[in-house]
């Protein structure tokens, strides 16, 4: 099965709280470009999409949903910047196992996206994600490990 992890697009530097920072125009365009590139590789349908409740992640999903589709989109409070990567990886693995999902997209933040990647690709140091960056992991539930298939950067 495939796990896609995407960092939100470029956001404003200032807002009344971190959770309220909105995407810039550049962030919107870059996220859409990455989504188009991913769809161009034949990946545009997801069994499940998990999106952080922070405004910039929600706006990223709004932008990229024109290229991607899913019948199941969930706002997930556990995937904010300092979420627990081990807990999130366990949750995703349980979802996949229970529902037999073949593809899951996670739209989240640094540093979680890096740590989450290393939870699924066990021999990998947590990578730095640029804004709008996306990684695709081929994941085996039986082995509880995966390998990177591709990265897309704006």
UniProtKB/TrEMBL annotation:
One of its GO terms (cellular component) is cytoplasm. Coiled coil: none annotated. It comes from the Bacteria. The keyword Hydrolase applies. CDD domains: HP_PGM_like (cd07067). SUPFAM superfamilies: Phosphoglycerate mutase-like (SSF53254). GO terms for molecular function: protein histidine phosphatase activity. The keyword Hydrolase applies. Signal peptide: none annotated. Keywords: Hydrolase. This is Phosphohistidine phosphatase SixA.
């Amino acid at each position: 099965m495939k796990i896609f992890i995407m960092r939100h697009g470029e956001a404003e530097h200032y807002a009344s709280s971190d959770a309220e920072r909105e995407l810039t125009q550049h962030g919107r365009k870059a996220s859409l470009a990455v989504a188009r590139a991913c769809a161009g590789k034949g990946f545009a349908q997801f069994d499940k999409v998990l999106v952080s409740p922070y405004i910039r992640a929600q706006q990223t999903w709004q932008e990229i949903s024109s290229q991607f589709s899913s019948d199941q989109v969930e706002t997930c409070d556990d995937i904010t910047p300092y979420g627990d990567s081990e807990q999130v990886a366990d949750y995703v693995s349980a979802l996949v196992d229970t529902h037999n999902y073949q593809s899951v997209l996670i739209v989240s933040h640094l540093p979680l996206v890096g740590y989450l990647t290393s939870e699924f690709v066990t021999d990998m140091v947590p990578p730095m994600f640029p804004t709008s960056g996306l990684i695709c992991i081929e994941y085996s539930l039986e082995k509880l490990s995966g390998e990177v298939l591709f990265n897309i950067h704006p």
